[in-house]
From TrEMBL, chain A:
Membrane-crossing residue ranges in chain numbering: 20-39, 59-77, 89-107, 113-139, 146-164, 198-216, 245-266, 326-346
The protein, known as: ABC transporter permease
Predominant subcellular localization, coarse grouping: membrane
Species annotation: Nocardioides acrostichi
CDD domains: TM_PBP1_transp_TpRbsC_like
Phylogenetic placement of the source organism: Bacteria, Bacillati, Actinomycetota, Actinomycetes, Propionibacteriales
GO function term, MF aspect, one: transmembrane transporter activity
Amino acid sequence: MTLLSTATILGLAQRLLTQVAVAAVTLLIAALLLLTIGVSPLDAADAFWAGTFGSSTNAGTTLTQAVPLFLVALGWIVTEKAGRIQVGFPGQVVIGGCAAAAVGLHAESLPGPFAVLLCAVAGIAGGAMWAGIVAWLWASRGVLEIVSSLLLNLVAVQVLAWLVRGPLQGSLDKQPQSANFAPSTSWPAFPQIPGMTLSYDVLLAPVLAVGLVWVLSRTTFGFTVRASGGNVTAARWQGMDPVRAGASAIVASGAFAGLAGAALLFAGAAPWLSEGFEASVGFNGIAVALLARNSPIGAMVTAVVFSSLNVGSTSLQSLLDVPSTLTSVLQGAVIVLVLIAAAVAMRRRRTPPPVPEPSTLEASPRPATAGTGV
Amino acid sequence: MTSMPDPGAQTTRRSPSQSSTQPALRLSGVTKRFGGFIANDSVDLEVGWGEVHALLGENGAGKTTLMRIVTGLYQPDDGDVVVDGTPVDFRRPEQALRAGIGMVHQHFTLVPTLTELENLALAPAAFPVRDGRRAALERAEQVERESGLRITPDRRVADASISERQRLEIVKLLCRGARILIFDEPGAALTPEEWEELARLMRRLADDGHAVILISHKMSEVFAVADQWTVLRGGAVAGTGAIADTTRERLVELMVGASIETRRVLEPVSPGAPALVIRDLTVPRDPDQPRGPKALDGVSLQLRAGEILGVAGVAGSGQAELVDTLLGVRRSTAGRIELAGKPYDDRTPAAFYAAGGALIAEDRHHVGMVGAMRLWENINLRTLRQRPLARRGVLDPRAARSRARKLMADYEVRATSENQPMGRLSGGNQQKAVLARELATSPSLVVAVQPVRGLDVRATEFVYRRLLEHRAQGGAVLLISMDLDEVLSLSDRILVLAHGRAQGALTAAEATRARVGELMTTQEAS
């Protein structure tokens, strides 16, 4: 078994190099932008570092904020492996969060660990249920999952708006938000970190990343999902059920997003349900996955990169008066650069394959006319 | 978006009949390397105007690479390409096309959702806003006058048959002024009749002064149309000469390096219990119109263990629907099927395999493999989901890899390792891997559909040998093929399908080319 052949190592090195290059170019763009608004890039780097990893308190915030992004990224990776594209993460995060909040507001009497677990499970169930609509529409009606999931995002936002004004409205000054969650329902934080900013839910990241890799590579379910994603017709003709695999993957991805919703509320800074708690985690999570090239392990790193951009921009704004929209520009730049790198890599891969064979290089469309093929 | 090339080019374009005494195409010392692999090793090739030149060789002999150099897809590392006396250095396919070189690919380069005329009008546009359809129609009419090739302008390509699509592809090249036409295995998808029509066309194109290069594995095709031949082996020229001065045996020997026995003798095997029984199977052509025209109309057949039943018939006689129905991908409206003596009426692919069935699908890429997954995963595509390779939903990759390595050795699958992505294997090795997957579980029934399509002589021989071994071990094979020679040489009995009806079953002794051909072309009774 030559799992680590030279080719593999070279490929890995090339991928790492690409990521480093993307980071370098992003930094360059950031420096240029800062110069144009008259801020010294060095000062900015100082402030950025201080805000993100300069103190253990801030590092805790950065890592904790990375968790929901990472969970959504896992959701994207599951559907990508199954060959499906669902983009309903914002909605699934919102509904998962609502479900978790609904449970959390009534779970204060339960002992801590149970309450936390119950809220997480409620989040998972909410996200899975919301994605289940997408899966059902696709499996039984053939509705494209990308369309239905996108539209359901809008519905979810309205559901949230109604909940925080209606059934779950609980703030004393009649603001559209819920009552504060009881401390017992929130994820406990590492006591060593001053300010208690590092929640225990960061432990979810390595566990779930390894778990997902294991499920995809070592179980029949993962195998079926990957085969269906790789060639849906072959999977069907080989006796698999690609529809079930795809629908399961969509539901699983919604479950991850729902858990992200619960994590945002119960391991975040603001222990109440309000409009806008989702804070673009749903779409940024997709970028996190793409930046990691759909690798669950890599997504742990890229999620931290994205969350540090978010956290760092706050300190840039407070210390140097740099507009926090700079973050959005940089996040956009990262996405564009990753796409460029991917396009370049694809072009390089396409030129010359070792042993050219006509049948493997060109697509072979099955004749559309019934019967002419045989 | 669509436009014909500059109309001025038509007037300056030299008509083939006025061609010079220079050869149409001359390659000298053409070498192409991919890393350490030499795909073409100092190849010399000369093709004259008005001749059909057969380019032969096994899979991986370098034919396709050479033609990709000629058509501008690859640039040679060394050597010269001279077209009609002018040295050329193509950087892009359009440049080769402008120089009059066109290729009819194995997999057509047509857009199925557009009409035939719209496909003709698709060309690198000089004026992006001009509608090229009128110009395309004029060119198509001109080509029809010159070559007799007629298209159906308003028909969608998706509705055209394979041979009609191929014809459109040829017209497309002629419309763009191609004078050197390269055909890459054009006979692979055609019925015997369609092939003969194409052969006549190739002769006619050559007689009109074009140069035709025919890439083929099949000796019968080569000897039917070609004037000259060149054999490539291992990337280098193994020999060249005139067809009139050579024999089939000589060419095959040059291709594979040794003589291969051509005719096989079937060991008599006493047939056992019925492996597959089909009674009065009726399948509609369009699944949404169960009462509409029928693809299969009351077909019955019986296949016993230790027997190969060949199903012959021209394309569209119901073979595809028969396979689809057996796998449960398509619904029948009437009829019963028994697999290994048990009723098989609740038909799904899973039930088919569970009942001891196996399928060597015709369209390997589409239904037979997952190109992005690794060889060991593809070779275990079904076994990996069952004991002993999977327990309670958890895979055992180590055992699966070692099973894959064993099968790779047994079935001579050549790959860098079992971890190589399936899509990176050559066509012949992919088919061997499929064969390993399907035959290794000792199925009671193997459905083999065009099992050697596009394979070279050696790989073909391997597939045939394995199917015959399976028969000798008491397995049953349903061989569905449009290659009459294949059906005749492998089958114990032959069932002829025409217009969705079983036109008759012949024993190997009764079956002659003429007899089977007659049944295949039986006119519809209505």
